[in-house]
Fold this sequence. Notes:
By secondary structure, the protein is α/β, with parallel strands linked by helices. The chain contains 4 helices and 9 strands; from the N terminus they run ααββαβαββββββ.
Amino acid sequence: MEPLTSRVPMMVIEGNxxxxxxAGGANFTAYxxxxxxxxxxxxxxxxxxxxxxxxxxxxxxxxxxxxxxxTGMQYAWLKQDLANVDRQVTxxxxxxxxxxxxxxxxxxxxxxxxxxxxxxxxLYKFGVDIVFSGHVHAYERMNRVYNYTLDPCAPLYxxxxxxxxxxxxxxxxxxxxxxxxxQKENQPEFGGVCHIHFTSGPAKGKFCWDKQxxxxxxxxxxxxxxxxx
Length: 229
């Protein structure tokens, strides 16, 4: 990354590969040593979650591999940060974290459902416009969705986990015949397990849909990058 980061401003957020458990229980050692983020400038006490303004956008970077409970420090910081946003100055509100909440691929399916249940309400309340995630090695763009229900006031979720990864792309969808993961699979590397069966819609009573979910607008298993303009 050095040839790029030495010439182009870059903001990062931790993912599962940055955990890197060390002797004595230490983790995220390389992440904390190599990347400087504006935590103090946004009143965060951690490099795992922070925010910044760029042009007309307020960016919020959240940590999926540290405590995200409503009773935790990250949630308290997020609530205050969102309350301080001036939409006259930054009319766009964009959030990002590593593992996607909405994902119709078999890989990592419903893996971070616990985080969604803890944090989705507050992002919806404050009108987050777009959410970017990675983790799944493929591209998927959602329709605006809240609690698995189409909602024009909800964020637009985009997974861009394909570009640059060296582990191969994800090609199987959870709605493909025989590809729905078992509930004991896709265990998160942090947090609890909150897998759900859908309570309404075409997939009512099921763990997976039988077709592409209505909240999934477009998905493609390919390498690539995009530019948000």
